[in-house]
Amino acid sequence: MKHFVIFLMCLLFLTSTSAQQKTGNGVAGDTVAEFLAEGDVYATKTFEDQKALDTFLKALTLDNNNYEVLWRISRSYVTIAQHLPNITDEQKTKQLETYQKGLEYANRAIRANPNGSEGYTRRAIANGRVALFKGVWDSIDIVKQVKSDCEKAIQLDRSNATPYYVLARAHAKLCEKPKFIRWPLGLAWANLDTAVENYEKAIALRPNFIMFRLDAARTYVELEEYQKAKDHLYKIASLPTEDEDDPQYRKEANELLETIKNK
Known about the structure:
This protein is mostly helical. The chain has helices at 2-23, 28-44, 49-62, 67-82, 89-112, 117-134, 140-156, 161-174, 179-182, 192-205, 210-222, 226-236, 246-260. Helix 11 runs antiparallel to helix 12 (226-236).
């Protein structure tokens, strides 16, 4: 009888240890959800980008094909890359590699869920950053992919503000070159009117996001619609901080407002 009790105790211990190793204080799904919630706080509230990435990578060890985890990892890599120094060749290489990691995980997110809007959104953003890094006019195929991914993301979820914004940025950036130059390259579709239409759609869906209003204002200035630009710039001062770069965006908004105040 004594040996039987010892056997049962050992069995219970082994079962408990195995469960803890497998789930980490809970079932796998709950743990992934906890990591997602923790990572989102780092990513969107405290702006601790590396901590966010590390947390999402932990979630990935529990479910390596989880769509929600994969697109968040893509977002983290791109955000980290944006804030890396890029003066020396070594630093530039590091930045590009980090953007490309973001692209890699966006592609994985799309494979995990081809009907998810965020996967295409994140791929558009990562590709857009790579195109800006390499030079838009040396990355024409990438720019076309950005447009396609934004349109797909919008088709899948019309309440997703970000792809409207990214598409607007693509239109505005390409319009830095005249249409007769863009036409042979298959980029004649870009125009500033469409840019502001998409900016306004993004703003309607996410009215407190400063970056959307700042870039919309810049495009209105290009169109010489100064009052519409001012309306967005004045609004920025009262908006809450939702992005780690918002202090810089507020400064840029004030500078632009000062430039056009008499127009």
